[in-house]
Amino acid sequence: MWQYLLDRRDLIAFQAYQHVSLVVQCVVLATVLAVGLAVLAYRSPRITSLANSVSAIGLTIPSFALLGLLLAPFGFGITPAVVAVVFYAALPVLRNAVVGLAGVDQSLVESARGIGMSRLATLWRVELPLAWPVILAGVRVSTQMVMGIAAVAAYVLGPGLGSLIFSGLSRLGGANALNATLVGTIAIVLLALVLDVVLVLVGRLTTSKGIRV
Amino acid sequence: MSETTTAPDQRTVSGVAIRLEGVTKRYPGQQKPAVDSVDLEIAAGETVMFVGPSGCGKTTLLKMLNRLIEPSGGKIFLGDEDVTGQDPDRLRRRIGYVIQAGGLFPHMTVGTNIGLVPGMLGWDKERIAERTDELLDLVGLDPEVYRARYPKELSGGQQQRVGVARALAADPPVLLMDEPFGAVDPITRQRLQDELLRIQEELGKTIVFVTHDFDEAVKLGDKIVVFDVGARVVQYDTPEAILAEPAEEYVADFVGAGATLKQLTLTRVADTELHTPVTAQAGEDSAAVVARATAAGEQYVVVTDGRGRPISWPSVAELTRTTTVPATRDDRLPVVGLRSTLNDALDTMLAASQGGVVVTGRRDSVAGVLVVEQVMAAIQATRGETRG
């Protein structure tokens, strides 16, 4: 396996880069979308419970099935992969953002309004910063989860380490088949750990000292 | 508009009058309005206390003043200006607002919290920083120490002080306070009340203050409004008048009028004869101070810090054992303000197990000493008065 790694280090490095790049970009996009949706939803209890059920049910859709279904409108390639990864990444963030925003102490919101902050300023300067640690916890869950889903996305010829796993699996028993599968899987696990550490650091840098636990 | 008639001394007034005309709040689906056509006039620079049972609409009425609750009818004037139709965000930047525990934003430093309103009003950074330090000083917190702290690093009383500083940041003419001292312990509450009285004496804002504690209302208010359900104004008068002549049975029950010791809450420390103590600055030569005290026939010496604020109250015997006057701060030192009531003074003495309290005036400097015998004499006098 070591020899296999050395022989193909360029290819593996490139696929790892593609994999992380896909995940990071999709998570960023998903976070923006999910927080935006949460902002629209959290004030109404009805929409909040709707958002929660959507995110619970959404997560039960098998990723393989969703990718298959997405092939019809988008065809093979990067688009269905991105759509699927963003979809899954958005769900935990959406749920946490709604919970986080709804959990902001109402007396603080009133206090913000009471000293003359507009609705938007209150959201931007008080509610979002206070909900941020909870939102970020959602982002961490998302990132871990879509590292795996992005591998499945290779099935529709998306980029990343998944292609290594799938090519290995498809010719199991052949030369280097097991090596390819193992290297792909282990690389994903390692990268997921690295990304998680990065997110913890981002959390420390972006969370106010005043609300850090 | 009208000047402060209740204050015997010339007081600075930077507040404006507030006038309510038929202010009403109706909630959909409720038969009776929560606030039913209230007319009220509050003079500039006065502190008016709203008291009444919970659910009587006093808080609703307060929140209509800065339109956190939109009135269903009636008009609100600040000075001569009708603000009923004004943009609420801009209106609120002209009205200080203090809630329980200060309502500080936990993710911002003390300095940032205080600078919020000036920031929204477009002040430049330097001016905001200057103003922040000035206000921290006003509420008795050292700017160097507290400016960069986060609210969670402060005690409840300190948070409340910062809350008051934030409300005063842009020098608003009107201050609304919604049960601000409800969540702190009695001793801290009394200190905060003293501080508010002191600040108010310096600034002369128009303050509307909601409380359920009638003693607090008597102590802080120039006037008290007693409300019944639907924010019906049952009585609007000075604390003395309400205690002496409650307008209805309802008020009498509510204020507990008739209790002679209630009068203790009407007598201010400043109204009694204060004893002038021997004072010494921390770091002075002990022998000289002891000599001074002995010459004056005193048993105790009040030690102050560099700014004249009392820090400890050692006996002469204790001082003779030192070479220089120690700068240690006694956290249990009993202190009240000039505008504290005798009730507070007695409470403070009991809490500290001391026979006296140090009285502070402007900027917390020593104004004198009050001993328990004097409080007893005052009690005797008022009892005599009410009996005779």
TrEMBL record, chain A:
Keyword check for Ion transport: no
Domain ABC transmembrane type-1: residue ranges: 16-199
Recorded GO CC terms: plasma membrane
Main location: membrane
Signal peptide from the UniProt entry: none
Sequence intervals crossing the membrane: 20-42, 54-76, 82-109, 177-202
Cellular compartments annotated: Cell membrane; Membrane
Record membrane topology: Multi-pass membrane protein
Alphabetic keyword roster: Membrane, Transmembrane, Transmembrane helix, Transport
One GO term of the biological process aspect: transmembrane transport
Family named by the database record: Belongs to the binding-protein-dependent transport system permease family.
Protein name, UniProt field: Osmoprotectant transport system permease protein
Organism the protein comes from: Klenkia soli
Highest classification ranks of the organism: Bacteria, Bacillati, Actinomycetota, Actinomycetes, Geodermatophilales
UniProtKB/TrEMBL annotation, chain B:
Enzyme Commission (EC) number: 7.6.2.9
PROSITE patterns, A to Z: ABC_TRANSPORTER_1 (PS00211), ABC_TRANSPORTER_2 (PS50893)
Domain of life: Bacteria
Uppermost EC category: translocase
Coiled coil start-end: none
Cell division found in the keyword field: no
Alphabetized UniProt keyword annotations: ATP-binding, Nucleotide-binding, Transport
Gene Ontology molecular functions: ABC-type quaternary ammonium compound transporting activity; ATP binding; ATP hydrolysis activity
Domain ABC transporter: 18-255
Family according to the record: Belongs to the ABC transporter superfamily.
Protein name: ABC-type quaternary amine transporter
Organism: Klenkia soli
